[in-house]
Amino acid sequence: MNFASDNTSGVHPRIMAALAAANDGHPPSYGADALTQAAQDRLREVFEAPGAAVHFVATGTAANALALSQFAPPWGKIYCHASAHIQTSESNAPEFLTGGAKLVALPGEDGRIAPATLAQALHENGRDSVNSGVNSVLSLTNATEWGTVYSPLELAELSARAHAAGLAVHLDGSRLANAIAAQNAAPAAMTWRAGVDVLTLGATKCGCMGVEAVVTFDPDRAAGLGYRRKRAGHLLSKHRYLSAQILAWLDGGLWLDLARHANDMAARLGQGLAALEGVRLNAPVQSNGVFATLPREIFARARAAGAAFAVWPGDQFDDGKGPVPVRLICSWDTRADEVDGFLSVLRAG
Amino acid sequence: MNFASDNTSGVHPRIMAALAAANDGHPPSYGADALTQAAQDRLREVFEAPGAAVHFVATGTAANALALSQFAPPWGKIYCHASAHIQTSESNAPEFLTGGAKLVALPGEDGRIAPATLAQALHENGRDSVNSGVNSVLSLTNATEWGTVYSPLELAELSARAHAAGLAVHLDGSRLANAIAAQNAAPAAMTWRAGVDVLTLGATKCGCMGVEAVVTFDPDRAAGLGYRRKRAGHLLSKHRYLSAQILAWLDGGLWLDLARHANDMAARLGQGLAALEGVRLNAPVQSNGVFATLPREIFARARAAGAAFAVWPGDQFDDGKGPVPVRLICSWDTRADEVDGFLSVLRAG
Amino acid sequence: MNFASDNTSGVHPRIMAALAAANDGHPPSYGADALTQAAQDRLREVFEAPGAAVHFVATGTAANALALSQFAPPWGKIYCHASAHIQTSESNAPEFLTGGAKLVALPGEDGRIAPATLAQALHENGRDSVNSGVNSVLSLTNATEWGTVYSPLELAELSARAHAAGLAVHLDGSRLANAIAAQNAAPAAMTWRAGVDVLTLGATKCGCMGVEAVVTFDPDRAAGLGYRRKRAGHLLSKHRYLSAQILAWLDGGLWLDLARHANDMAARLGQGLAALEGVRLNAPVQSNGVFATLPREIFARARAAGAAFAVWPGDQFDDGKGPVPVRLICSWDTRADEVDGFLSVLRAG
Amino acid sequence: MNFASDNTSGVHPRIMAALAAANDGHPPSYGADALTQAAQDRLREVFEAPGAAVHFVATGTAANALALSQFAPPWGKIYCHASAHIQTSESNAPEFLTGGAKLVALPGEDGRIAPATLAQALHENGRDSVNSGVNSVLSLTNATEWGTVYSPLELAELSARAHAAGLAVHLDGSRLANAIAAQNAAPAAMTWRAGVDVLTLGATKCGCMGVEAVVTFDPDRAAGLGYRRKRAGHLLSKHRYLSAQILAWLDGGLWLDLARHANDMAARLGQGLAALEGVRLNAPVQSNGVFATLPREIFARARAAGAAFAVWPGDQFDDGKGPVPVRLICSWDTRADEVDGFLSVLRAG
Fold first, then answer.
1. Among residues C86, A33, C173, which one has the least CA distance to residue D132?
2. Could you give the C-alpha distances from B128 to B125, B131, C97, C223, in angstroms and in order?
3. What chains are in contact with D, requiring at least 3 Cβ pairs below 8 Å?
4. Which residues of chain C register pLDDT less than 70?
5. pLDDT tens digit string along B193-224?
6. Is C240 on the interface with D (CB under 8 A)?
7. What pLDDT does C318 receive?
8. Contact assignment for C100 to D100 by CB distance below 8 Å
9. Is the pLDDT of residue B192 over 80?
């Protein structure tokens, strides 16, 4: 019963097999190999973006910060939700890799930015000036940190406002597969067709060992990215092992199958929780995460049974007495019987 | 009729004379001269802080960012008011000179942070962790960007909360002289006795040509500041000309006399404005700035008469039709007849 | 016949098996798992350094730059050989991750720094001052970029000079296994007992998929390293897959067996080359690299046969007509018959 | 008898008068005032560069680092002489303000880079690549740190080589006035006509209080410089006081008169020294600095008489027993009788 995070799950067997298969031969290092070319091409095909620049790295934090650094100068401002990973969980990596850009945190229900909130923030921040700096990027997260999902239409509306104000749009797609599966939309519809300029595509949380892609839809904007990646220490020498993961992950739609399964498990879990007396869902269940407040005794039963999950959005929200807000994440390898078993434990009082 | 900013005013004659007097001889450069030693000592004396480390630079932005860099590591978080100069008007200099620290902007009426707001923000940001970064600094501004003033007691309460949570306290004292004059309190009472760990003391806006001091009350924390200042290009070679300004400025309490005069002019202006029909003060007048919303016709008369002042907090808040929020700053050289003449213009409709 | 680099070789089967074995369960992410603890402990044991701080990352560039950032402040100077990887091949990552430290490149035969050269450089650079910055680190590489190896005694002499001048000693051990195997010395003797303060231990080039360790022998100096790693995007979420590699690599001395094999192959290759008329070795063969100048016709035969290797130290040293200086690297999976076949090709004129 | 540095001298009376004259009125701050416009225009006129972008700052270190940051990306390489101020005396400010560019130090007699040395260095560093970084800037200093002067022809030859290799050319003109006076050449001939892309024009050492100009001859390259200056804390609020200095300094050729006088004094001093038995000049006297090795007893006499000057290139070159290498700098206010008096002291043994 492990709902701690999708990054505590292992590697899907087909991806593990792809790593083993990549182990032959002596291809060039640093990304000049055929597997890397193939993975980049496959990704461009899946996103219907034949001209996109594609760079692989091993962590989501690196992917986000490198993606942002292409569009935000050191004196730039990056607008994001207050709960965005780049704001709360990357130890200032975006500030570091951009050379000092400022993150402007916006409020919003369920982890989402409302268009009116964005408009208001842009109004208040005013025009670019030497003193105020430059309005540079709107960073969205999909699925959000609260498990909710923007639709293509919603993304397009936010992007349009951002572009009108001169901002580029970054999408933190650490869980984009889950969002796409949830919307049953084309990858292109959830990204560049909705105005996204640069995408961080997460694969690690969805069955890979450790690989993320920075997809820059206008390759001219990626001119320096090879240098940026290397000088930040993020160019892996045996690069084929990143690429092999991506190829296997995309192959036959595995990525969306794994995401859909995780979403299904979360739906199952969410429904079960909602039926429990005293439990309140803190956000609609739209992808692979369930956010709920548990009565103290239910929380205690779950912990006593050894279930792993997080108090959310932080341990400080458990006062030791009252109800406890928690996050429960389902993964590609969460089993239905695991969900049901967990629910049984909760009900067993 | 110039109420644009206290940095459009000139240099006080006594300070200009001090610059001329400093022009003799060939003292050592880079701050190793006797005038610099004297200015540092005088400042320590005035603040009753014999052990403090004192460094001079030519701009407030440099002073703020250098001050912060001593207490916030690159992975640190700095809490400040949403209207703080370091947040709105320094083009990310704090992020740059700290090596990437994150500024967390807090709301608050009249440019002030309420203790409960600080407590809530610290609660929500939670404990330090490798992912979230480190809670490092509370940066206060006194007088604030809305002309209001924290009392020693208010400062002490905020500092106590900050210290309890492991944060150091920085005071942006770009207009500290005005705040001290307003409170009629001792400089020590408005700084280290109220828990301030590092002070940016502004002199430029209050009659100097261009000099600010970074005052680090615990000199151990200033161990690297000499290097930080130099490697940011802020160590002036003919350093005596910074020091001479400070000496003359502090001499005989000139600094507080100038600040008091500016405050008095703002009080006179605020009272006159408040008496005008349709004018609303947007913040209490407590130092040398007056913040008011002017009916369109009054605003137009002021502009037609050539008065200089800013739409505040930005040009985007003038919709071209309705009332206009403005900022009117009085300076050490604002004259009473200038204030009265301005009020006459406004009334002349 | 691939002598391009030791990072074009694959992953050793025992390490691949360890990755597969690590794929079970849902251990905590971000390095809080038992495998990581075990790998750190095993490494400390192998180096007889029970108190050392051990951090894993995926690239050598990251490991070097993070290691240096603990000892060189942004205003620090780092002395290294002119051919050091940190100087020539990391696209300024050390400058970036230290926040701006300066690399001072020293000359020296065969990729090695002579004690007198170090002494002379330290003399010329003089004492620390606010203007000149701070002498901070001596960075050595072992085995060097020219395949030569410092002995424990040589390391100790250089370290002693560095320490006497207040510098810490960093060892870029991208190929430390090869150096240890070559010297048949204890890991401790080649590192901390010889004065090394922080080690970058490379495993990727010696049979792993992608993992390096930063070993800080005095853990107090590593206080901020967890933050530094995260904020540079180098904390892998599914961290156990780094640790599993290290464990299998150290297990039963595999690392030294692989390194010794690579060294043996280089010795075989070097002897064969030296026996060819017109071939000159450019550095003594002491680890797994052979550096030689080939007559044009021999060079052409090798290329025609499809052998992969680099013109060294750069393509610009091939003038298209005369003899060509080359680098030939042997790896853990280089076969004796591959070496012999290559030599046959060269001789076949 | 002060030959310590040209930055220990005071401010020329005409410049002091200009500061006093600038003290009237309330012009806009942050460089939007008429004096600043006039100073920029005057400088463009003097350099026959009507389109150049001109930015003023208060220190030479800031001017150099900002100038370089326009042409060297964080992954760039900057070639300079080993004795260049940016390499030896700015505490890594260039590395900091460029975001991490690497300085490559070149040897060369008398503080000068020989064309062949540059060619060799560029050859050895090879082509740009993701691993090696980008060859970006050649930084020259004129007059050099050893008081020697490049002629327009010599500058043009070095620039041509740099441009052919894709590098921009930066000129550290901390003492450009002295170099121009020495060559009796047009300012344009010593800068952009000789291939200089960006100039740091020093005025502080030549009679000003504290002001330097960054002159970017192709204004398109200066697009971000306003932001760079502000975010480094180098935009002075009461900016007119920088501009007033420049205007008075250029007015009527004062700058070159002051420089010529300093050069003349150095020539007088150099001739006197060369005539002393046992004294050796360490570089030809071509501008306002004299570099000589003094016999111990002469050195001791000078010190005993209270003369101020530096052991050069560092205190460590005084072994306490033998002859001592020294630097003697003449300034705009060095008097002939001061030089003669100093020589008398030296001869008085």
1. C86
2. 8, 8, 21, 14
3. A, B, C
4. 349
5. 999 999 999 999 999 999 999 999 999 999 99
6. no
7. 96
8. yes
9. yes
Reading phi first (left if > 0) and then psi (alpha if -120 to 50, else beta), residue B202 is in: beta
Cβ pair D130:C91 closer than 8 A: yes
Q: C119: which 2 tokens?
A: 């002494």
Contact by Cβ (8 Å): C238, A204: yes
Mark yes or no for CB contact C230/A20 under 8 Å.
no
Q: Give D25 to chain B, closest Cα distance, Å.
A: 7
Least confident span in B22-26, B231-235, C345-349: C345-349
Which sign, positive or negative, has the C-alpha torsion A171, A172, A174, A180? Answer: negative
| CB spacing of D227 vs A130 below 8 angstroms | yes
Closest among B136, B171, B134, B255 to B206, alpha carbons compared? B255
Alpha-carbon D113 to chain mean position = 16
| Token reading at C36 | 């990581």
The whole-number pLDDT of residue A349 equals: 67
Q: How far apart are CA C228 and CA B145, in angstroms?
A: 34
Which pLDDT score, from 0 to 100, does residue D349 have?
67
Amino acid in position D280: R
Give the pLDDT of residue B102: 98
D247 contacts: CB under 8 Å, gap ≥ 6: D18, D35, D38, D39, D42
**Do the Cβ atoms of B23 and D16 come within 8 Å?**
yes
Mean of the pLDDT values across residues A70-97?
98
High-pLDDT (> 70) share of chain D, %: 100
Domains of chain B, residue spans:
13-253, 255-347
Task: Give the CA angle between residues A245, A111, A140 to the nearest 5°.
Answer: 55
SS3 A42: helix
Q: Which residue does chain C place closest to D97, by CA atoms?
A: C100
- Out of C16, C58, C205, the one facing A236 most closely (by C-beta) is C58
* 3-class SS of residue D199: strand
Beta carbons within 8 Å of A283's beta carbon, 6+ residues apart: A110, A111, A146, A147, A148, A291
Report the pLDDT value the prediction gives residue D87, as an integer from 0 to 100.
98
pLDDT(A167) > 70? yes
D211 at the B interface (CB within 8 A)? no
Written out in words, the top-level CATH class of the domain with range B255-347 is alpha beta
- B11 CB within 8 Å of a chain D CB: yes
D234 to chain B: which residues are within 8 Å by CB? Answer: 59, 62, 233-234
d(CA D295, CA D283): 17
Residue labelled with tokens 């000057």: D309
Report the relative pairing of strands D212-216 and D280-281 from DSSP bridges: unpaired
**Can you give the pLDDT at residue C46?**
98
Q: State how far the Cα of A316 lies from the Cα of C102, in Å rounded to an integer.
A: 42
The answer to whether the Cβ–Cβ distance between C75 and B134 falls below 8 Å is no
Per-residue pLDDT, averaged over D224-236, amounts to 98
Residue D341, both tokens: 């008096």
Which residue type sits at A199?
L
- Note whether D233 contacts B59, CB cutoff 8 Å: yes
Residue B51 has pLDDT above 90, yes or no: yes
**D232 contacts in chain B (CB < 8 Å):** 62, 93, 96-97, 232-233
pLDDT tens for B255-303 read 999 999 999 999 999 999 999 999 999 999 999 999 999 999 999 999 9
Q: A13-253, which class in CATH?
A: alpha beta
Of D35, B267, A328, A222, the closest CA to residue B259 belongs to: B267
Whether residue B78 contacts residue B102, with contact meaning beta carbons closer than 8 Å, is answered with: yes
Mean pLDDT throughout A278-293? 98
Q: Please indicate if any CB of chain D lies within 8 Å of the CB of B62.
A: yes
Q: How confident is the model at residue B157 (pLDDT cuts 50, 70, 90)?
A: very high
pLDDT of A257 over the 70 cut: yes
